[in-house]
Write a structure and sequence with these properties.
This protein has four helices and no strands. The chain is mostly helical and 97 residues long. The two termini are 26 Å apart.
Length: 97
């Protein structure tokens, strides 16, 4: 992958982070991760719904951390990469059809 691509990704991620830092410093009602962009309208309007959504996001993040740790442990134990063990997940869809 071209270095220009990674540079663009780095700049985009930095822009999002700087936007969040600015919002956190200027808006006392700011909730981490809430950039005010919800095009599908999935974020609840009531407080109970917001708390439920935040709890679900935390659980999802924790599960993802456990999964990546399990992948690393599996690679360590088997001395083989996840990509090599489950190649069907890492091939283009056109090749599978």
């Amino acid at each position: 992958i071209a270095p220009k691509y990674w540079a663009a990704i780095l700049v985009a991620a930095a822009a999002v982070d700087l936007t969040q830092i600015n919002m956190a410093n200027t808006d006392p009602t700011y909730t981490p991760g809430n950039l005010g962009w919800d095009p599908l309208g999935l974020y609840p309007k009531d407080e109970a719904g917001k708390k439920s959504m935040l709890a679900k996001e935390l659980r999802n993040g924790r599960l993802a951390m456990i999964a990546i740790t399990a992948f690393a442990a599996q690679e360590y134990v088997t001395q083989s990469g996840i990509v090599d063990q489950t190649p069907i997940f890492f091939k283009p869809f056109a090749g599978l059809l």
